[in-house]
Amino acid sequence: MDPTVRDEDIATALSALVWTLSDESRATRLLSLTGLDADELRGRAGDPVLLGAVIAFLGGHEPDLTGCAEALDLPPGALVAIGERLSGG
What we know:
Elements: H1 7-21, H2 24-34, H3 38-43, H4 48-59, H5 62-71, H6 76-87
C-alpha cells in the first residue's frame, strides 16, 4: 500500500464499495469479474488492495465511475487517484 494512503482514502473506498453493491446487477458483475464470492468480499472489505480493485472496477465502466463519484461528491479523477494509492500504483 502506498504510504500516502490516508484513513479518508479507506473510508471513501468503503463508500464506493457500498455504492457498488447497492445495485444488484453491478454487484453481480463485480463478483463475476473479480472471482470473489460474497463471503470473501465481506472478509476482505477493509483490505486496501481490494478496495483499490473495486475502484478500478468502477473505472472500467465510465457510467459507474461517474455515478459513484457523483454520489460521493467527488470528481471522478479524485476517486481514481484514491484507487491508485490503495493499489500501490
